[in-house]
Amino acid sequence: MAFDIAVKRVYEAPAKADGQRVLVDRIWPRGVAKKDAELTLWLKEIAPSDELRKWFGHDPERWAEFQKRYRTELDSNKEAVAQLRGLSRESKVTLLYGAHDEAHNNAVALAEYLRAHG
């Protein structure tokens, strides 16, 4: 089953087309009020470990290795992955992140993981 999963910066305005909005960062994004984020869920448990996040540092040269390491973490994080899969079976899910880099971030890696392991 193909899941309807989108990825969006949490700083972009919420839209009805987002469906269920899930923040997938471990740390709350600066400058965003909780009420303005219009979250369905803040699933910090699915975010990369602090160790992996700090190692990656949003360095595009580390992207491929980051994805590999993050997939390994996700493989052993069955409860959080199952929770997100459950939501995505109900309706569209938009994974929200705070990083500046729209191509190299945990939400992009997570969306690819969910599509590949649907």
TrEMBL record:
Domain of life, per UniProt, equals Bacteria
InterPro entries this protein is in? YeaO-like
Q: What is this protein called?
A: DUF488 domain-containing protein
UniProt organism field? Mesorhizobium montanum
